[in-house]
Amino acid sequence: MITRKKTRQIHVGTVAIGGEAPIAVQSMTNTLTGDIVATVRQIHQLERAGCELIRVAVPDLAAAEAITAIRMQIAIPLIADIHFDSRLAVAAMEHGAQGIRINPGNLGGPDKLARVVDAAKMHGVPIRVGVNSGSIAKDLLKRYGYPTPERPEALIASALENVRLLEQQGFSEIKISIKSSDTLTTIAGYRQLAQQTEYPLHLGVTEAGGLIAGTVKSSVALGILLAEGIGDTFRISLTRDPVEEIRVGYELLRSLRIRERGPELISCPTCGRTRLDLFTLAEQVEQRLQTMQATIKVAVMGCVVNGPGEAREADIGIAGGHGVGIIFKKGEIFRKVAEAELLPVFLEELEKLEAEYQNRNSG
């Protein structure tokens, strides 16, 4: 049983962060924010996958101004990511950003930071203090050295120093992130930070890599921290379609029995008995499952002989080979179909289960 560290609760739009609120899964668009159509299209894809908070880059005034139109067309809170330019932070909030991510120490001094804080107070916008290993002030690096698993203090000191800058402005609607591309440094840093602050924490491994490397590194670091009760929001950072980040994020939460969203897929790794293209079949099923909300277990198995028995706990599953496939429910054969019809018939059955789930939960 995981016992979460109790943190101060803030709100990003309608989403509660910290306290006893569910751990939120978020992502970031990779479109040009000024391209409103493309950005909204990608956010809609992320919403369908279960994204609960979305961050957009704001490198210029056009991107800040686009936030108004983007927000009108999406359902989840929008966070603006700002680097160096306090004017863009203010403009983003004026155009409807519901949260901002900044490094207070690199905005150009106390006066510029004060203008950002005043705008955040006026618009009711929380601030994420985001510190990466590559953005630590030189004096802190000189004092503590570059962050390592043995000595992550520079990350913690940088974050808390920036938090104090906000507190000195009378601002406390804060969450904190300290990211490293090194898994063990990330773990050590967040462990120490969690002992030194009550602010909610956003977890992540920065520059984690592509689908395989990024998933492994993020899952190891975030899995350990979440299992220890540390973390209130997180992002799985992948050099990939951001929808994949959400898929990995929910599987991580499911594996720790923290949260469940949508179906769980189980599939066999294949062996010499497999007589169909199970890789493609499993991927096509998984693509449909990522937009479903029914909390069911779905199996994709390569062997008609052993598949249903091995996936006995699945609510529904398929197995196939030698030109024929079966659909089974709770380990019992439900229907036999030609292999060519296996996927479309199976997707129809999934649609029925999703409709039943939606009907049960519509009231």
Overview of this protein structure:
The protein has 363 residues and is α/β, with parallel strands linked by helices. Helices cover 42% and strands 19% of the residues. It is built from twelve helices and 15 strands. The strands form three sheets. Strands 8-7-6-5-4-3-10-9 form an eight-stranded parallel beta sheet. Helix 3 (86-94) links the parallel strand 5 (78-81) and strand 6 (99-102). Helix 2 (61-72) packs parallel to helix 3, helix 3 runs parallel beside helix 4 (110-123) and helix 8 packs parallel to helix 9. The longest helix has 20 residues, at 342-361. It is elongated, with a radius of gyration of 23 Å. The mean pLDDT is 89.
> Alpha-carbon distance between the termini?
31 Å
CATH architecture verdict of the largest domain: Alpha-Beta Barrel
Class from secondary-structure proportions: alpha/beta
Count of helical stretches: 12
- Highest CATH level, the class of the largest domain: Alpha Beta
Q: Biggest sheet: strands, sense, closure?
A: 8 strands, parallel
